[in-house]
# Entry
Amino acid sequence: MLIPPPLSLYVHLPWCVRKCPYCDFNSHAAKGALPFEEYVDALVRDLDHDLPLVWGRVVNSVFFGGGTPSLFPPEAIDRFLQAASARLRFAPGLEITLETNPGTAEHGRFDRYLAAGVNRLSFGIQSFDDAALQRLGRIHDSAEAERAVKLAQDAGYDNINLDLMYALPQQTLAQAEDDLLRAFALEPTHVSHYQLTLEPNTVFYARPPKGIPDDDSAWDMQEHCQRLLAEAGYAQYEVSAYARPDRQCAHNLNYWRFGDYLGIGAGAHGKITSGAAQHVLRRWKHKHPQTYMAQAGGEAAIGGDEIVPAERLPFEYMLNLLRLHEGFSVADFSARTGLAADALAAPLAQATQRGWLEETDAGRWRPTELGRRFTNDVIELFLD
Ligand SMILES: C[S@@+](CC[C@H](N)C(=O)[O-])C[C@H]1O[C@@H](n2cnc3c(N)ncnc32)[C@H](O)[C@@H]1O
Ligand code: SF4
# Structure
């Protein structure tokens, strides 16, 4: 029996000051003035169109992702949140995150995001090394990044994530360590620590920069940084996510736990479980901002709808759950996929035999240290 899990709201804001050469997100360099008001109108029409998918359900978190959501003035974010809270049931005190590029921070702006209801900021820092930031094509330097985080803290933000990347072109282990130490000095509650990947359809993929650390060096950096993060009180709870106690990102946790999310905005993806229809629907929106704005609110804005075939659900479930250190329970698997525990018997036996997964309590499984090293291989065992 499929039981609808907790629900989140994801809102995609697709513009950036300029496109970073490593980035494959749906982000577009801003040319001239951006149509903030028109885009918020489109978001509200899009939300109205999708409301029947989630009638009566409580929304437990909101995440403004990008792109660079901090390009949007606080008044536009406020207007969207007011419209959304009039249409959806927001859980009291729900987490509302806004992704922020330090190069867009202005004095006085953070107070107004806070007043609009945004209670968590996620800063795209990447590195505190100015030469590295230049090689990454970033629009800010390290001093601006530190200033932006302090401005947010002065405005009253006490729940802040810093995104860092490692295995950067020409980066040494000592430099990766230095990035973390400078991050710790700012006392964030959460750190996301991503290995730079060369994604197809990016400038870095077409013309890889010189000096990308090889796999062994990247692994050494990861292990060393994991230790530093643990010593500084940031517990790893997912492949790239580390948090102070009780400061895990509620929105991303729901996503990795195979929770539901409504995806609003250009290129946004959603996943919604229907208890009545006993299926999981994936829906995505048109990627291009202008096309999206012209069509939002109608069927034409929907890039695609797919009912996930039952035989693919174990793989999709594990793709998310096995990223988490907490692992999963077989009862939760059944509630979120509608499948009986038998569907897992063979792959679980194989994963145990290879030392990749361990049963902690009756019916509760989590990846071992070896399993975490081979996350992709473990997940593949659950392919139909
Ligand atoms: C959508 S961006 C949001 C933040 C904001 N746009 C910015 O960059 O300042 C989310 C994060 O993904 C990470 N990221 C983007 N491209 C990546 C890549 N190719 N490899 C690893 N991490 C990447 C960066 O750390 C980035 O901050
Ligand atoms: S600012 Fe962020 S979303 Fe925009 S291009 Fe750079 S990494 Fe991508």
